[in-house]
From TrEMBL:
Signal peptide segment: none
Molecular function GO terms recorded: serine-type carboxypeptidase activity
Keyword Transmembrane: no
Pfam entry (one): Peptidase_S10
Gene3D superfamilies: 1.10.287.410, alpha/beta hydrolase
InterPro entries referenced in this protein's UniProt entry, alphabetically: AB_hydrolase_fold (IPR029058), Peptidase_S10 (IPR001563)
Family: Belongs to the peptidase S10 family.
PANTHER family: CARBOXYPEPTIDASE, SERINE PROTEASE FAMILY S10 SERINE CARBOXYPEPTIDASE
Keyword Transmembrane helix: no
Protein name: Uncharacterized protein
Assigned keywords, A-Z: Carboxypeptidase, Glycoprotein, Hydrolase, Protease
Example of a GO biological process term: proteolysis
The species this protein was found in: Kwoniella dejecticola CBS 10117
Amino acid sequence: MVLAALIPFLFTYTTRHTDTLEVTHVRNLNCGAGDNTVTNGYVHLQNGHMFFSLFEGKNEAKDNGLVIQFEGGPGATAFDYPFIGAGPCQLTPDGEPSLSGLSPSPHPWTDHANLLVVDYPIGTGWSYNTSEQNPASTSDKAAEEFDDFLQVILKQWRQFQSQPLIMSTLSYGGTTGAHIAATVLKRNNAVKDQLFPRRVIKQFDQLIFGNPFADAMSEIYTQWDVLCDSEPKAYNQTVCNNMRNNLTICLDKLRYLDEVESTQELRKDAIQHCVQSPELRFEAPAYNRYHRSRPKCWPPNTCFWWMDKLTEMMNSQETRDWLGITQDVERWWYAGPAMFRFINTADVLQSAYKLLRPVLESGTRLLVHSGMEDTMVMPSGTASWMRRLPNPQLKAFRSSETRQVSNELMTGTVINPGSDYSLISVKEAGHIVIETHPAVLQAMVKEAVKGENYDPSR
Ligand SMILES: *[C@@H]1O[C@H](CO)[C@@H](O)[C@H](O)[C@H]1NC(C)=O
Ligand SMILES: *[C@@H]1O[C@H](CO)[C@@H](O)[C@H](O)[C@H]1NC(C)=O
Ligand SMILES: *[C@@H]1O[C@H](CO)[C@@H](O)[C@H](O)[C@H]1NC(C)=O
């Protein structure tokens, strides 16, 4: 009798209790410079299944801290960084595009920290949802899914609850990352007076944002400045005139979205005046917009030498088996279905940087780096929102000069060096700084787990 009464209860409990972790495989990655433990798996959430790989820090580095890396897009996979320099083994232009063809990375993050890469949001890379599941299509809702994911991770690997926690993102990760940091803080604050909260209360110690897209408005006007009003010019006069003619209408619409109301319909209406078509972005420019001093690239998968190699490696049976990928994912794409979901909601037209105010006020550090040759996310647009984001360091940041730096790792500039709110611009780097300057990124990770923003002027 009692058992019969319990069965429906147990059933609802197990079907509803979806925040579970499944380790698919613990593997050893050895490309000729020692053993590296990699734990692969899914976190099963109500709305979908998030895939991750945890690259364990080398020797004592496994006690130093956790760096969580995800990408932009939105919908771009996180599995580029671990194989182009952040992980212990990397692809090379001459090497085979397979796990056994990898070479030791010269400056892996795993020398200084644990590296967790996650395909986020759901529908990115190896992360997926079934047809009954309805994952978020906007960065505010997706941040709640990330928080659920993070809770599962922190409960599984309890040591990370007391180690420094770093979020590292690229590009659109400036928008999704700002939402995540704000959501984690908000949910922590909601239970902070509870005696026995069910959640792990853990804040990010540092955010490392690479070429972050975090404010549509700054991006859009600096786009015109950089692409059409400075040398070398990206476009001919016809395209530039169109851009200029759209600029005022676009900014008017963005201000309404920002100051009055933001609905999907209004955002979509603004898109045609504010956002370039893929052809204009990739095919029409005179150069590679991810790196201005390189020739133009079309189709977009030719913009980075490693893009096709990574795609081939990821989709090989060897890699699928190694990671333990489910049959539910047919194919790995650099940009997954999540991208189309987010495009449909015009999520891009927002000013997510503002969400960082309470995060920075609560003590999280922000280190931003920009490759100066990038024209996808304009370094000048990044400097613009950083100069008006209220936070304890804003005065110091605004009065800090742009200091020239040249050390053994990089040449470039830094604003407000060594503080908790700092902007580093790297000369000769493009959209993906790790591609050309892996040692600088490694130095950022090394200092981050020690509790500091990397200072290139020291
Ligand atoms: C994921 O969810 C969407 C709805 O948001 C649905 O249209 C799609 O079919 C689902 N994906 C898969 C792979 O079934
Ligand atoms: C701007 O205007 C032109 C012509 O009026 C149009 O073709 C173009 O797509 C618009 N959008 C952008 C972002 O330039
Ligand atoms: C300017 O560039 C656009 C996009 O590549 C092209 O369609 C157009 O024909 C060009 N116009 C002139 C006058 O060269």
